[in-house]
Design goal:
Elements lengths: L2 E12 L2 E12 L3 E6 L5 H8 L7 E6 L2 E2 L5 H8 L2 E4 L11 H12 L4 H14 L16 H13 L5 E5 L7 H18 L2 E6 L11 E6 L2 E6 L1 H15 L2
Parallel strand pairs: 3-8, 3-9, 6-7, 7-8
Antiparallel strand pairs: 1-2, 1-4, 4-5, 9-10
Length: 242
């Protein structure tokens, strides 16, 4: 099966602290991989490394057939037009209205008329339930839920073939999180998009993960299906219980 993303033997440090220690994994085309890690494990940094926003000390990242260590600026820019990224805490631009935040990738990567931009933005706002009365509101005026919805709308506004998601439903009520997960699952089903998500908790049964990886000690210490990883976790709990 075709590889969407390959991280090979990556080392990365912040100051004197080694974050990634010979980290390697693959994401297949059309697959959803969920990486679980504790606080300070480097989950958010990993997504930035994968997107080419920061570069590893050693090792390589090949994303969508593009080697980020040797790619030209044009190749990296073209790749980013194929990626939808939800940053931790949404990372909406604070002095830009919600509508313009969502429209930004289109205005940067596409040579569309404003009418075309508006049609696509309105489509994604409707898909993710972004309140249209908030079009010209700044992010600080929005609830956590609405910021999360707007961030997802922005990430999918280019109809990307790859999604990098940093805890996109963290802090939301279970019912709302399930609804957003359903939309992402349907997007994957209809487009064949590949998805890499990071979080601090195992996804629930029925979520869109095909595989789970456990990030600890600077590498993926375990990988498997949702059921395999949950069974392993329950066995470990049983061993440690009195």
């Amino acid at each position: 099966m075709e590889i969407a993303l390959e991280v090979r033997n990556v080392f990365f440090r912040l100051g004197s602290r080694l974050i990634f220690l010979d980290l390697s994994f693959r994401l297949l085309r059309g697959e959803a991989l969920f990486i679980v890690g504790g606080s300070g494990s480097g989950k958010s940094l990993l997504l930035r490394v994968c997107a080419g926003l920061i570069h590893p000390e050693r090792g390589s990242v090949v994303f969508g057939g593009v080697d980020l260590g040797t790619a030209s600026k044009k190749e990296v820019q073209d790749l980013r037009a194929r990626i939808g990224f939800v940053f931790q805490d949404s990372a909406l631009i604070s002095n830009m209205a919600i509508y313009d935040n969502i429209a930004l990738p289109l205005r940067y990567h596409k040579k569309w008329t404003e009418a075309q931009v508006r049609a696509r933005v309105e489509e994604k706002m409707a898909l993710f339930g972004v309140d249209r009365s908030l079009d010209w509101s700044l992010p600080a005026l929005l609830s956590l839920e609405m910021r999360k919805r707007a961030a997802l709308a922005r990430a999918l506004v280019l109809d990307p073939e790859f999604l990098l998601l940093d805890q996109p439903t963290d802090g939301l009520e279970r019912e709302i999180a399930q609804d957003l997960s359903r939309i992402l699952r349907e997007y994957r089903r209809t487009t064949g998009a590949s998805l890499l998500e990071v979080g601090s908790e195992y996804p629930h049964r029925g979520d869109y993960a095909d595989r789970i990886g456990l990030l600890e000690g600077g590498r993926l210490s375990a990988q498997g299906t949702v059921e395999e990883m949950r069974s392993s976790m329950e066995r470990e709990r049983g061993k440690n219980s009195p």
